[in-house]
Amino acid sequence: MSQSPPDHTVDAARLPVMLSTLRLPSIGRHWQGFADRADREGWGAARYLAALCDHELADRDARRIGRHLAEAGLPRGKTFASFEFAAVPTIRKAHLSALGNGDAWLEQGANILCFGPSGTGKSHAAAAIGHALVEGGRRVLFTRTTDLVQKLQAARRDLALPAMLSRLDRFDCLILDDLGYASKDQAETSVLFELIAERYERRSLIVTCNQPFSEWNRIFPDAAMTVAAIDRLVHHATILEMNAESFRQRAAVSNKRAQDEMPATTINDNQNEGQT
For the chain, which domains are there? Predict the structure, then answer.
């Protein structure tokens, strides 16, 4: 008695359900288009499957990066592309880009310290490195130091500081912006020191500060704590000196110069428009 050949047909109606159950949404959206192309171009089964998997993996990476960018809290537009390297001669684009790759120093739990007067691009440089790290698959959190200190102090009051420090461990890099504006209260700065000590040689920090180390006694009122904090931050650290004219001051001067050079009739017209 002859046997009928096995039925190799696929019930296409079941594919969306199966792919959804397997959590393969990109393959679910694109399998039919790839199948049509495979039929036209004579792909083998392995090439067809590999093309679908490549597409799924690329979309999965893009979704993960999107989630990590959303949680990072990075300021918008502060990337390498928008950084005015010509205005900060002490900073080289190749150096910042290498830091943005992140592999070597992040694996060491090393830090980046950005110093300079207000408005010289410290926060921009730190955020640009953070953007590059996230795009490279790392997890980053950008926060004003004062905001994080307040949260750490609240966690200590609730006897939850170890748990919060543990949650922060999921970030490969914390960016502490404007360390120099942190509260001078002993209790609050002590939790900042605990964060620095907890991450020492395990997880990285990027710190921006407008005060040199010689003035950090204004941040940490205890002299021993000041020395210990600096020691842990500087060990395995890259230090960026942002000694340049303030971007904001330069923009204000440029705007003033443009107004001075503007014909009087144009200035009067603009003022009249502003009054209407």
Answer: 21-71 (no CATH), 75-248 (3.40.50.300)
